[in-house]
């Protein structure tokens, strides 16, 4: 919308936008509403700037019920979109929770498997040690036997 700032600030109504800040008064220069004054969010309408967010509030100075209902409908559709987005987000959150629980279970399974494997290898180590001892003992007995024979 082509626009220009109001010349007479003194005549301006005091109106706050959705940001809670005072709105600025502009005069419309469009062919549909020439010279019609309206109030708008005072923040610049720059979308690529992340720091400045225009709340997109605007209202005709001589706001009729027709305009108000259009605005209400616009807000309603925005609310619907926001609600849909929220529902989608909560759905994906639930999906993520389920995935997290599955991963937790997998981790628990892996941990118990790991515990089992550790126990198994300890048992094997103990068996190997016993075998070693048996070998040494057998060899000692053999040596003693040989020495006794050749004495
Ligand atoms: Zn605002």
Automatic annotation (TrEMBL):
This is GRF-type domain-containing protein. It comes from the Eukaryota. Keywords: Coiled coil, Membrane, Metal-binding, Transmembrane, Transmembrane helix, Zinc, Zinc-finger. InterPro entries: Znf_GRF. It comes from Solanum verrucosum. It holds the Pfam family Zn_ribbon_GRF. Residues 17-64 form the GRF-type domain. GO terms for molecular function: zinc ion binding. The chain crosses the membrane at residues 131-150. Residues 72-113 form a coiled coil. PROSITE patterns: ZF_GRF.
């Amino acid at each position: 919308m082509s626009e220009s700032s109001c010349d007479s600030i003194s005549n301006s109504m005091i109106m706050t936008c959705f940001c809670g800040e005072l709105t600025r008064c502009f005069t419309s220069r469009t062919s549909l509403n020439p010279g019609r004054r309206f109030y708008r969010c005072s923040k610049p309408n720059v979308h690529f700037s992340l720091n400045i967010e225009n709340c997109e509030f605007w209202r005709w100075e001589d706001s009729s019920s027709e305009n108000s209902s259009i605005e209400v409908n616009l807000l309603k559709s925005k609310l619907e979109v926001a609600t849909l987005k929220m529902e989608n987000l909560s759905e994906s959150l639930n999906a993520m929770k389920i995935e997290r629980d599955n991963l937790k279970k997998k981790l628990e399974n892996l941990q118990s498997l790991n515990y089992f494997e550790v126990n198994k290898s300890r048992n094997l180590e103990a068996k190997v040690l016993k075998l070693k001892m048996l070998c040494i003992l057998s060899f000692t007995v053999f040596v003693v036997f040989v020495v006794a024979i050749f004495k």
